[in-house]
Amino acid sequence: MKIPDSAALKASSAPQKKKRLYQSLFFQILIAVVAGVLIGHFWPTIGSALRPLGDGFIQLIKMIIAPLIFLVIVTGISAVGDVKAVGRVGVKALLYFTGATLFALVFGLIVGNIVQPGAGLNIDPASLSQDALDAKTGHAVPKDAAAFILDVIPVSVIGAFANNSLLQVLFFSVFFGAAIVVIGRERCLPVISLMETVLELIFKIMSWIMRVAPIGAFGAMAFIIGQYGISTLSTYALLIAACYGAAIIFIGLLFVVAWGFARVPLWQFLKYTREEFLLALGTASTEAVMPRIMTKLTNAGCSRATTGLVVPTGYSFNLDGAAIYLSISLLFLAQAFGHNLDLGQQLAALGVLLLTSKGMAGVPGSSFLALSATAAALGIFPVAGVALLLGADRLMDSMRVVVNLLGNCVATFVVAKWEGQFDRSVMLRAFNGEITNEDTAIMLGKEELFAQQELERISGGQEPSPKFRGGPAADAIPQFEMSKKGQSTTPVCPD
């Protein structure tokens, strides 16, 4: 994207038309979510039939996630130019994830012991059937730690991209980016410029996909309400209240962590990312907003390398909302069968949940697999008892999605600050509505606004914004241009 020269400043200085409310993506998604709830509640048959709209939108997002992660990580690592720094980011992220997940599980157990959501239900084990649980999990068996680690290594790079295995794509991306650093950025400049150009294309495609986000949110919400119904709330009232109450308190703790470690005002961040959080709520999927949330984080001062490593990894290793739900649900089931777990049993359950909660993102029935593995390990209540949660599980999606997504955003800020790859002044500019780098402008479809802001910055004697956070200036990477017939425009590497 080319910034006009200063001669165009006068032409661009005319006051911009204020965007009308109905043109706001946040307003459009909000109306779509409300309409979906109404359709699903009053016409449940129609609501259930609208599921393809939500599924289709999520598939559009998944279509670009694997190449996006690969390109973001490789170009981010090449810009950092330090393989050791990448390793430090990975280690710090895993340390943070382990601590956050452990705290979320312990916190959930504390809430479950206080609220006692399953007390007095007195479920008869003889009345249970394994069939409903098998239908939900597809007879899958929970993976042990060794199998999970081996699954991170792709058997085939092409297979990792084809299957959208994000951890496998991330694993290969780190190696590819490290190889560029070792061989030398200047020597690999043609490859880097090609990747940057392809990434601009991905960003542009993403900006187009987001135009149909309200349709996806409408279809997904109509299906959820039409299929499961609002009336289900009364059946699991205490369990739902315990989970949502715990989530609110946990979010409050995230506010403290974000401000204490990185001086990030999380309320302003939520206002800044309101479109992404509302879309995640509407579609009940954090994957639906992964590309946009990564872009917003880099626009808010986190380096591309840190964001590219922390966010996709966090989708498997840092599911705080799911951890809270698992620990409370475990106590709910034990109490429903008349068992009060002692401290030793709860500590044993904590260890099992800490392992089984990893790698849950994108796995159908993953929460049931984790609880089934824990039930089998403890042997206190039948594994088939996990089927009791089938009616409530979908209603927990909103809680899990918000806490998972916010937890990963806070993790990105913390790790970026920890590694010295976070610029708070840029964050404040972003919260004030500025576009702080070129790639964000393309992803959000705000190239004209960015061009005007750049003219004002340059005319005021300020440095131009970088191509991406933690990367070079916009003109430092030559554009990879397709040659016309009889011409060659291949970028020339400096000697």
TrEMBL record:
Record Pfam families: SDF (PF00375)
SUPFAM superfamilies: Proton glutamate symport protein
Predominant place of localization: membrane
Residue ranges of the TM segments: 21-43, 63-81, 93-115, 165-184, 205-230, 236-262, 317-337, 368-392
Region (Disordered): 460-495
Ranges of Polar residues composition bias in the record: 485-495
Subcellular location(s) of the protein: Membrane
Membrane topology: Multi-pass membrane protein
Keywords: Membrane, Symport, Transmembrane, Transmembrane helix, Transport
InterPro entries for the chain: Na-dicarboxylate_symporter (IPR001991), Na-dicarboxylate_symporter_CS (IPR018107), Na:dicarbo_symporter_sf (IPR036458)
Listed name of the protein: Cation:dicarboxylase symporter family transporter
